[in-house]
Amino acid sequence: MKNCDQVLTTNSIVTHWIEEMAALCLPDKIVWIDGSDEQRQELIAEACRTGEIIALNQEQYPNSYYHRTHPLDVARVEDKTFICCQRERDAGATNNWKNPEEAYTEAANFFRGGMRGRVMYVVPFSMGPVGSPFSKIGIELTDSIYVVLNMMIMCRVGKQVLDVLGHSDDFTRCLHSKATLDPEKRRILHFPEDNTIWSVNSGYGGNVLLGKKCLALRMASWMARKEGWLAEHMLILGVEEPSGRVDYVAAAFPSACGKTNLAMLIPPEGLKSKGYRIWTVGDDIAWIRPDTDGRLWAINPEAGFFGVAPGTNSSSNRNALLTVRKNTIFTNVVLGEDGTVWWEDGEGDPPANATDWLGNPWYPGKKDENGKEILGAHPNSRFTAPLNQCPSASHRMEHHHGVPISAFIFGGRRNHLAPLVYEAYSWNHGVFVGASMASERTSAQYGKQGEVRRDPFAMLPFCGYNVADYFKHWISIGRSIKHPPKIFHVNWFRRDENNKFLWPGYGENLRVLEWILQRARGEGDAVETPIGYIPGKESLDMTGLELAPETLDELLTVNREDWKAEADDIEQFFDSLGLKVPWELRNELEALRNRLSDDE
Ligand code: GTP
Ligand code: SPV
Ligand code: MN
Predict the structure, then answer these.
(1) CA distance 122 to 142
(2) How many whole angstroms from 498 Cα to the centroid of ligand 3?
(3) What angle do CA 569, 572, 576 make, to 5 degrees?
(4) 231-303+394-597: which CATH topology?
(5) 55 CA distance to ligand 3 middle (Å)
(6) CB of 383 sitting under 6 A from ligand 2
C-alpha cells in the first residue's frame, strides 16, 4: 500500500477497497488505527498542535478535550441524507432516495482529491462486543482525527476487529471526508445493497461517526429486516429490585427527548426506601432479536455516549456529570480560559473569561445587536464519553447475549395530547402506537424547532428502508415470539395553560417505570380508556412527591375530541406512506376511532 507504514490485515478485499478510495481522495498518507493508547496519544498531540482539539484542564478533566465544529455544521442534515438503493420504493416515502450510480458519481466529485495534504485514517470498528455473533464490523476511512478519537470512545476499535474479520468481506465500507465542509455539497449516503456508507463535507456527530446512526440504525435496520431482528433508536435500562431481580426495558424517544436521561435515572428521594437500582445498558441504540426462550433480547451496539450537554446538571442527571469527568470529548460547549467547560442549565457558574461555541468572548446574559440573549453552548452541543465510566453502567454491556426485554416504551414531546403513560391493548395496538408517534422538533436536527411531526418509533430519520415494510416487520416479529414484551407510551412533556411542565420528570420517571414493570408482570391496577390502559387512581406510588391530585388527573386525562383529531392526522400520515401500510394498523386506527365514539 502506497504512503502507508503499516498495514494491519492481509485481507485483500479490505486493502483493495482502501487503495481504491485512496486513489479517489488522494491523501498524503494512510494510517491504520490499531486501538493502542500509544497511538491515541500521538493523534491527540497532533490534533492539539493543529487546533482541531484543545486540551482541557488535565487536573479537573484528565484526558479530556474540546472541539468546535464549523458554525454551519452542528446537527444531522436530514435533507442531505439519502438511501441509495436500486428501487425507489425500497427507500419508501419517509426517506430521500438517490439512484446508487448517480449518488456515487456526484459524491465522487466531492471526495476527489479532498484529502490532499491530509492523512487518511483507517478505523476498523465493531458495533457490539468484538467477536459476538450479534455484532457487525465496519471500517471507516476518515481525514478527521476528531472522528477517530470519537469512534475510539463510541465503539470497539482496533486490530482485534480485523482479526475477527479475517478474510471475510462481511464489513461495512465507510468513507468519510470533511472535504471543504461546504453545506451545499454535504451528503450522507447509504448504499445498503453494497454495504457501503459515504459521508462528505461534514464534521459533526451523527453525520460522521458512521458506526452510529448510519451503520447501527440505517444499514442495520435494512439487515435486520432480512435477518429477522430489529435495529432501534432505543435506550436499554434495567430496574433491580432489592430481591436482586432485574427487569429490562427498551425505550424509543426521538432525538433530544430524554433517552440519555432515562437510561441513567437515579431513584427519587421518595422511592429510596424501596431500594431500587437502575442499570444503564445503552442510551441511544438497541439491537434486538428473538431468542429460543421466546423472548426478545437486546444488546447496545455502542460503547459510549454521545449525549446532549445543555440541561445536564447534578439534579437532572448526576450520573452523566460523573461520567464526563475524564476521557471525554466536549463539542460546541462553553470553554473557560482555565480549561473548564460549561453549558446552559449546567453545574455552577460559567467560567470567567469564557468563549462560546463559536469561539467568541462570552459571558452570561450577553446579547446580540437585536437584544436577543446569546447562548454560550449550542443547544445540540454534546459530550462523548465511555459508557463504562457511568456509575450505573451495567456489567451486562459486555455480555454477548445482551438482556431480555420485558417492556417497550415509546414517547415524545407532546404539549397537551398524550397522557403521562398508557399501555397498549395488544402487540399490534402497540405497533400502532409506535407507528403513530409524534413529537416536537428539537435542536438535534435542522428544521423548524417545536413543530410537531410524526416520528414513527423515533426512527423517522433512521429507518433505512420503506417505513411501511418496517411496520410490517414489527408486526411479524410480535407474531413469531411466544412472550412478546408489553408496549407502553409515555409523555414527560405535557404542559399546563401557563406552558409549564406538569410532570417533574427525570428521577421521578421511576414512578412510571414501576407501574410499567408491574403491568409487564401482569400486576398493577389499570383503567381502560379509548387509547389504552392508564394507571388506576392509587396505582402510581407518589410517596414523597408533592404533586396536586388535580395535576395528576390532568396528566392522565384523555380528551376524546383531541384524540379524534389525532386519529384524523394519523390517517393522513398513513395515507402519505403509500399502499404498503399494513392492514393491521388500519384496523387499529379503526378500533381507536370506534372506542373514541363509544358510550359518549
Ligand atoms: P439523542 O442523543 O439526540 O438521541 O437524545 P436523547 O433522547 O438521549 O435526549 P436526552 O436524554 O439528552 O434529553 C434531551 C433533553 O430532554 C434535555 O434538555 C433534557 O433536559 C430533557 N429531558 C430529559 N428528560 C426529561 C424529563 O423527564 N422531563 C423534562 N421536562 N425534560 C427532560
Ligand atoms: C440523535 O440526533 O438522535 C443523536 C445524535 O443521537 S447524532 O449522533 O448526532 O445523531
Ligand atoms: Mn439518538
Answers:
(1) 7
(2) 30
(3) 140
(4) Phosphoenolpyruvate Carboxykinase; domain 3 (3.90.228)
(5) 27
(6) no
Strand pairing class (486-490; 403-411): parallel
Intervals of CATH 3.90.228.20 along the chain? 231-303+394-597
Using the atom order of ligand 1, give the atom closest to the CA of residue 310: 18
Dihedral pair phi/psi, residue 489, rounded to 5° = -130, 135
For atom 11 of ligand 1, the residue with the nearest CA is: 258
Please tell me the CATH code under which domain 306-387 is placed.
2.170.8.10
Instruction: Give the three cell numbers for residue 28.
Output: 498524503
Strand partners, 410: 252, 489
Atom of ligand 2 lying closest to residue 462 CA: 3
Q: How many CB atoms sit inside 10 A of residue 274's CB?
A: 13
What's the rounded Cα separation, in Å, for the pair 344 and 324? Answer: 16
If you measure from the C-alpha of residue 233 to the centroid of ligand 2, how many angstroms do you get, rounded to a whole number? 10
At 536 the pLDDT is 92
- Write the class of the CATH domain 12-52+77-227: alpha beta
Instruction: Write down the pLDDT at residue 444.
Output: 62
Radius of gyration of the chain (CA): 24
Q: Chain-wide mean pLDDT for the chain? A: 96
pTM of the model: 0.97
Residue nearest to atom 4 of ligand 2 (CA): 255
Q: Of 202, 69, 175, 73, which is closest to residue 120 (Cα–Cα)?
A: 175
Which residue, by CA, sits nearest to atom 8 of ligand 2?
A: 206
Low-confidence ranges of the chain (pLDDT < 50): none
Question: Helix axis angle, 467-480 relative to 427-435, nearest 10°?
Answer: 160
Supply the residues annotated as catalytic.
Answer: 257
pLDDT value, residue 451: 75
Q: Over the stretch 351-398, which tens digit does the pLDDT of each residue have? A: 999 999 999 999 999 999 999 999 999 999 999 999 999 999 999 998
Q: Using a 6 Å cutoff on CB, does residue 504 contact ligand 1? A: no
